[in-house]
Amino acid sequence: MSTTTSATPAAPSTDQTPGGVQRLTFAKAINLGLRRALEQDDHVLLMGEDIGTLGGVFRVTDGLQKDFGADRVVDTPLAESGIVGTAIGLALRGYRPVCEIQFDGFIFPAFDQITTQLAKMHYRSRGRLTVPVVIRVPYGGGIGAVEHHSESPEALFAHTAGLRVVSPSSPVEAYAMIQQAIASPDPVLFFEPKGRYWEKGDVDLDAAPTGPLLDKARIVRAGTDVTLVAYGPTVQTALKAADTAAQEGTSIEVVDLRALSPLDTATVAESVRRTGRCVVVHEAPVLYGSGAEVAARITEECFFHLQAPVLRVGGFHAPYPVAKIEHDYLPGLDRVLDAVDRSLAF
Amino acid sequence: MGTTGPLTDDGLVQLLTPAGVRTAHPDYDARVAHLDADALRGLYRDMVLVRRFDTEATALQRQGELALFAQGLGQEAAQIGSGRALAAQDHVFPSYREHGVAHTRGVDLTDVLRLFRGVDHGGWDPVGHGFHLYTLVIGSHTLHATGYAMGVQRDGAVGTGDPTRDTAVVAYFGDGSTSQGDVSEALVFAAVNNAPVVFFCQNNQWAISEPTSKQSRVPLADRGPGFGVPSVRVDGNDVLATYAVTAEALERARSGGGPTFIEAFTYRMGAHTTSDDPSRYRSSAEEESWRLRDPIDRLRTHLEERGELPTAFVEELAAEADALGERIRTTVRGMGHPSPASMFEHVYATPHSVVEGERVWFEQYEASFADGARAGEGSHR
Question: Which chain A residues are Cβ-neighbours of B149 within 8 angstroms?
Fold first, then answer.
């Protein structure tokens, strides 16, 4: 803080912000969602490593420090626990910090602050305190990175009561979901599929973020033979699988979970009651992964509708491998279709 | 008492000797010049009441009324002196032994026992008292304090010159906490942001069984300057000195001068908690040597020798302490049993379908025993 008086610059007028329907990358859609949140609430702050002058290593915060100032778009020391811990303090003072964890594998120094402090503050204060902190995490693989840059740790947080855990699957969804995450009074882990940052979609920038985007799964593509459940980066994989399977006469229904906490079992169960088959796909290892939770709940709720066991496709119980073989580790199109075939053949 | 290493006496600010004699200190005399006999008796009263709370709570634990208690015995001067230097708008982030500071912030001490009885994870309104909930994972809250102070800066509540507006934040933590990475990160964030936060470290020399020498080879206060945070060592059993150094650090913070690290050198006269047995790791001779430096005795001697502790005051205070003890006993025993379904409350601030689903299931499960249809079941808890 360079001055002792309030150094918050006035928000730029909204006419500086693009409007209408625009074709945007996933990363730019988040950028504009953050911009909108910064404009609409003076108490929204962005915090993270290299997010200011540089605009973030993925440029998700590009240009925001220039327009909103260094007190609202804060380049922090390189300490993840410090980022989240001070964000909790800022939230207790009435601010709405949005933290960027530079890469998935860097979140663990902050694990204590997230799971022990952030997740429990509202509960242990009997509702007297709220901590509306958003933690943005570029996650997942497929970009040829070095180790600790391609992981999918979302289940660790979904296992912790008090946190909301979401992951958008498209630019449209990302633009709306980041705004809802920031508006939420609950802490939100916002997992961004970094392998999809450069994919484009048409986004209506004037559309208000409506609907229960942080609570409800959505059926992305209707089908009748198999329900394919995905979220984040694997939704596009699932849609490709549905296209391919359709050519062979198999009708796949694709469900985008959007949220792992809360897990919208109802939408998945409704689909599985119609199809009788369910395959879950995520990049994270299947052992104790979110697919296991979906499988258990669908088995409980749809037991007499199931024509086959719920199958899971995901990473293996090995550390994320070296880049040259990461596509053998990740659940690609072939592995997904193989699981669909196994489900149909059961 | 070592003369070198982390337990040295070197550089301790002291305004009252252990014998209760007021000693001059050119840097800090002015900070306590306004404290007249009434004010000193007020500090004495605070310490006596807080110690009575400690005694009563320990007894209640022994009687099975509390699951656990963390005694503050011996640290009254560090807590009351620093706590009484605070302004109403200041905000405190305590660890779990700061009952004395809680008292100065107007927290009803019986509310502190809600946590130790197992009926609440908190127990008081942290916003209204400017006193956050206790933090049991040591050191974590130093970051919360620093972030809160960064919010104070953004609110423009620093350096305005308005004594009712300018705000400081204090994090209380112990010698063991200083080894936690979060404390170092808090010092980094506080320093580079010039945040209005005071790091108040009570070095009570024991982190359960580990002496300060397991945490540091040098005085803990030496850590501050390496981060660019000025530090001061103070005799933590001298209520005037802790008041003075805290007042100075608070003023620096509120005026925009940035953070300060205070090491209050004191002694945990009791056990770590009621589950601990200090005889396994420290000598009775050491304990006895610190009993001779009791913070309450020190101020009492000082007041008595100046004829400023009249019998009527002492008797009234004794009666007040007795009444507090009675109220603590009655209140604790009267704390109700939390409803089992309350475990589902406030997990989230907005509805969460999984929590809601589990709550509904649990309530139906509980209700299933009520109509006698499942007689004999449900008794195995």
Answer: 89
- Do B242 and B376 reside in the same domain of the chain? no
Residues of A with a known catalytic role: 149
**CA A99 from centre of chain:** 14
Range A204-230 average pLDDT: 96
- Which chain B residues are Cβ-neighbours of A130 within 8 angstroms? 349
Q: What are phi and psi of B350, to 5 degrees?
A: -125, 155
Rounded to 5°, the CA angle B326-B328-B330 comes to 70
Note down the domain range covering B235.
5-334
Distances (CA, A) of B273 to A58, B61, B79: 49, 10, 18
Q: B-chain residues within 8 Å CB-CB of A88?
A: 143-144, 147
Contact B182 A124 (CB under 8 A): no
Cβ separation A8–B154 shorter than 8 A: yes
Q: pLDDT tens digits for chain B (381 residues)?
A: 446 789 988 899 999 999 999 999 999 999 999 999 999 999 999 999 999 999 999 999 999 999 999 999 999 999 999 999 999 999 999 999 999 999 999 999 999 999 999 999 999 999 999 999 999 999 999 999 999 999 999 999 999 999 999 999 999 999 999 999 999 999 999 999 999 999 999 999 999 999 999 999 999 999 999 999 999 999 999 999 999 999 999 999 999 999 999 999 999 999 999 999 999 999 999 999 999 999 999 999 999 999 999 999 999 999 999 999 999 999 999 999 999 999 999 999 999 999 999 999 999 999 999 866 665 555 555
If we measure between CA atoms, which residue out of A158, A79, A334 comes closest to residue B147?
A79
In chain B, the number of structural domains is 2
Q: B329 to chain A, minimum CA–CA distance in Å?
A: 24
pLDDT at site A192: 98
In the CATH scheme, what is the homologous superfamily, with its name and number, of domain A22-204? Thiamin diphosphate (ThDP)-binding fold, Pyr/PP domains (3.40.50.970)
Q: B137 at the A interface (CB within 8 A)?
A: yes
Pick among A93, A117, A157, A297 to test the B interface (most B CBs inside 10 A) = A93
Extract the tokens encoding B51: 């110690």
Q: Closest Cα partner for B181 from A112, A136, A87?
A: A112
Task: Answer whether B205's CB lies under 8 Å from B268's CB.
Answer: yes
Multiple choice CATH, A218-345, 3.80.10.10, 3.40.605.10, 3.40.50.920, 3.30.572.10: 3.40.50.920
Note whether B302 and B358 are same-domain residues: no
Q: Cβ contacts (< 8 Å) between A126 and chain B: which residues?
A: 120-122, 345-346
Whole-number pLDDT of residue A10:
46
In this complex, do B127 and A129 lie within 8 Å of one another by their Cβ atoms?
yes
**Are B352 and A128 an interchain contact pair (Cβ–Cβ within 8 Å)?**
no
Across chain B, the runs of DSSP E, i.e. the strands, are: 12-13, 91-93, 169-174, 197-203, 206-207, 210-211, 231-235, 260-265
pLDDT at A123 over 90: yes
Our CA-based measurement puts residue A92 at a distance from the nearest CA of chain B, in whole angstroms, of: 7
Taking an 8 Å cut-off on Cβ atoms, the answer to whether B352 and A261 are in contact is: yes
Who among A4, A162, A263 is closest to B347 (CB)? Answer: A162
Contact (CB, 8 A) for B130 and B83: no
Look at A185 and B349 and tell me if their CB atoms are within 8 Å: yes
Q: Out of B143, B160, B350, name the one closest to residue A86 (CB).
A: B143
